[in-house]
Amino acid sequence: MSDTIIAKGISKSFKRGTETIHAIQDISLNIGKGEMLSIMGRSGSGKTTLLSCIGMLENIDSGSLVLEGRNIKDLSEAQRTILRRELMGFVFQRFFLIPTLTAYENVALPGLFAGKKLGKDHIMELLEMVGVSQRYDHRPGQMSGGEMQRVAIARALALDPPVIIADEPTGNLDTANAEAVFGLFRKLASQGKTIIIATHSQKLAKDCDRVVELMDGRITRDEKN
Amino acid sequence: MSTFKLALRNLAKRPMRTVLAIATVTISITLLLSLLGFYFGYNKAMKDELNNFGVQMLAVPKGCPYSSTTLLLHGGVIPNKLPLEAIDKIKAIQHVKSAQGIVMGTLELDGVQHIIYGISPGFEKLRPNWKVQGKFPTAEGELILGSTIAKKLGAEIGKKYTVIGIAQDKKQQEELGTYPPIGQQVITYKTDPRELTVVGLLDQTGASEDNFFITSDSEARKIIDLNGYTAIAIELDDQTGSKEFVAVAVEGVNDAQPVTINQVANTVSGLIDSARSIMLSVVIVAILACAIVVAGTALMGVIERSKEIGMMRTIGATPLQVGTSVGLEVVILTLTGGIIGIVLTLVLQNPLSDLLRILIPNAPNTNLVSLPPDLLLLSVGIAVALGILASIPPLISAVRAPPLRMAGS
Ligand SMILES: Nc1ncnc2c1ncn2[C@@H]1O[C@H](COP(=O)(O)OP(=O)(O)OP(=O)(O)O)[C@@H](O)[C@H]1O
Ligand SMILES: [Mg+2]
Known about the structure:
- The structure holds two protein chains of two kinds.
- Chain A is an alpha/beta fold.
- Chain A has seven helices and ten strands.
- Chain A has helices at 47-54, 77-87, 103-114, 120-130, 145-156, 175-190, 202-205; strands at 5-16, 19-31, 36-40, 62-67, 70-71, 88-91, 163-167, 194-198, 210-215, 218-224.
- In chain A, helix 3 crosses helix 4 (120-130), helix 3 (103-114) runs parallel beside helix 5 and helix 4 packs across helix 5 (145-156).
- Chain B has two domains: 3-48 and 268-407, no CATH class; 63-254, no CATH class.
- Chain B has a six-stranded mixed β-barrel with strand order 2-3-9-5-8-6.
- In chain B, helix 2 (15-51) crosses helix 11 (319-359), helix 2 packs antiparallel against helix 12 (373-390) and helix 11 packs antiparallel against helix 13 (392-400).
- The two termini of chain B are 29 Å apart.
- Magnesium ion binds at residues 47-48, 167 of chain A.
């Protein structure tokens, strides 16, 4: 079976004034199903840019990207949005829950966009799995950072995507919560989900199957643990 | 979870801002409805009143403008007269079925001024909607009262009132004519008191005559010391061309000028139509200003939420879905404002009509603000259209918001 994500020589640069910043350069990376991979590197090394490109949040300048057998080059913007919601769940450092919606409603939101009504049982099951089911009726403002991130993970799982992309998901959490979140990712990977996490934490990266390190937009290390 | 619920939550998040935006819409829709309601109501009331007039033509003194003809309908003093013999001359014109002299003027009872309306036999044809308890005044000294004034005076059949007429000074009339130059005061004097006995009470008609003192024409002439008629109402036969024929003939009768009821109706409509364009511009400006305010408010909301919107794009919302949610928010806002505006106008309908009656001389007595269902429906439509218009800027901004990149700062 072929890999879930196949990136070949992808590059992305940004213009800042007259200066061109090569955020990632010539990156080739294959990620298999059920793999839990961490991306490390100094600030500005290109972690977020790489995740954004893989998640189709940013268009690549060159190279090719094949997601679950589909070359994204052939897709329109609308088709990419649809593919994104089928394939990917996103977890942000700052959670980005909608403050006016309850935990339950935040998890239900991807269903609204996908035009699928998610069952009550399904949503409660997800909240249960991440350990915040008792908080289902609370708004983000009434929850702790750890709880908000769990709700965000439940939201990422709402449409049961094969890939979870998380950018510094523990950046705003204390050690205990950070470990709990990684534990959750571990569990999801064992269920066959592909997990890609950008992190600054050496310790947490060790829990992953594989560590990729970036420097100045290039891969300098790619090791299995 | 639904787009509607999402929109409601966003509106509820900033209650003050939402309430202000709704209030703006409420004000402009109330303005729109009141002005249009007045336009339709006034027009209809005037037409109804003219339609109740049972004759097709009036002969009025020459130089007497149409506005005086409306005075004749509503009560007021036309300071001019047609000589007594004019009535026989008009009756002699071919195609004239009947002619009645009308005398109108001002009298005083216990220091309060009222309108006196003198009628001659056959008057029933002029106002088929008049219902009199008792009898029409035929002899001198007989009086019937309009329903409002009768109630005010506590009048009943048999009661007697002593009235004093107000007449124009004869010398001034000779020197300056009955239309003294503008700025020149009309010199009047009071006539000798006359005693009138109530012989009938007029049922309410909803028009000006509810406040009239009505006597025979000869009695009215004595009260206001007028040796002539204020106007002569002419009933025509229904042969084609009668109107044109009689109009020409009336011109030849002692200083008389023909005015058809249609002409009066057209003059009234013309006056209202010219007012309409002013009203419409006021309404359009108000609606546009409101659209700008609402659009600005909504745009501010979208800019504030650009991260949130970007996040929704990231987790799978298409630009169209994001736009729909923003547009829905704006339409909910304007629709709510519109409906409150409609309710408010319905509540204000009667007080507004009373206020307008004070401001507009000679206004009909029926409700001046008419709010038919189709007008209310139109306002709902305008509120929605306003919402769609106002949602364009925030919608563009929302649709353009890119998906949120990852962590970032
Ligand atoms: N939209 C953008 N416009 C201009 N430059 C950008 C943009 N996004 C990223 N960059 C630049 O690209 C480079 C890589 O940025 P990126 O955010 O991918 O780094 P990172 O490894 O995620 O850093 P951090 O650990 O601080 O999150 C940086 O030099 C950054 O300034
Ligand atoms: Mg980053």
